From TrEMBL:
Biological processes annotated in GO: glycoprotein metabolic process
Ranges of residues in domain LicD/FKTN/FKRP nucleotidyltransferase: 24-242
Name of this chain's protein: Lipopolysaccharide cholinephosphotransferase
Transmembrane segments: none
Pfam families cross-referenced by the UniProt entry: LicD (PF04991)
Key words of the record: Transferase
Classification via InterPro entries: LicD/FKTN/FKRP_NTP_transf, LPS_cholinephosphotransferase
UniProt-recorded Gene Ontology molecular function terms: transferase activity
Amino acid sequence: MTENELKSIHSKLIVIAEYFDNFCKENDIEYYLMGGTALGAIRHKGFIPWDDDYDTFMDYANYTRFKQVVKEKLDTNQYYFQEEDTEEFPLFFSKLRMNNTTYIEKDSVGRDMHHGLFLDIMCLNNTYKNKSLRYLQYIAARAVNAKALAKKGYLTQSRSKIVALRLAKVLISSSVKKILLRFIRRLNNKDTEYIGHFFGRAPFKRTSFKRSLIGEGKYVKFETLSLPVFYSVEEYLRVRYGDKFMEMPSQEVKDLYPSHAYIVDLNNNYSKYMQK
């Protein structure tokens, strides 16, 4: 993907981000920038230059409320809410997609779903202070996530991942999936010291942190906007990326995060490409 193509994607993502931010404010829903988007906000005052996605997360209460409100109040002329764990989108996070755009990912080519440009909305799950129990929660999430990735048609060259996906597809039945999800979410109505995001690509030690890092949140510059991050966002980034998160990564590290885009067209509806 060229630098100009990335800039065009960033410009459109800012439009989605502004709408999402205003929607959450108007409906008293708290959310925060996460992962590489939070890192971009602190290190670059906006997007990481080579990154083409936009990630947010909410705690369980806000995420549950958002999923309810968005179905009632979303501007459906402009946007589409793609809910998690559905036949259309089997993964365990949701997306807000822009209508009349195209962003078809490599593992979604030909799949009957909305393929507009998007931002991701993740749910933080309450977790245990006990590290062993937290690890079991992480493993359970990895198992159901592997099942979902296999269903979505996830592409990988890794033999170990191919084996894991095939095993999950066979071994994780719908009843096993329900049991695992119940375990992953069992603390979500309790007040816990730790909170985590277990459905992403981060290794176990990078997935959870103390709830106190969230604090009251704060707004920081992100491109032309002012957007919310954890009050102790630097400490969160230290957990997620290590002590040197403010240093520019090597090309080798950058290559670990390639664009997932297969077809990008920011001016035309994805239906134009569905037969190709």
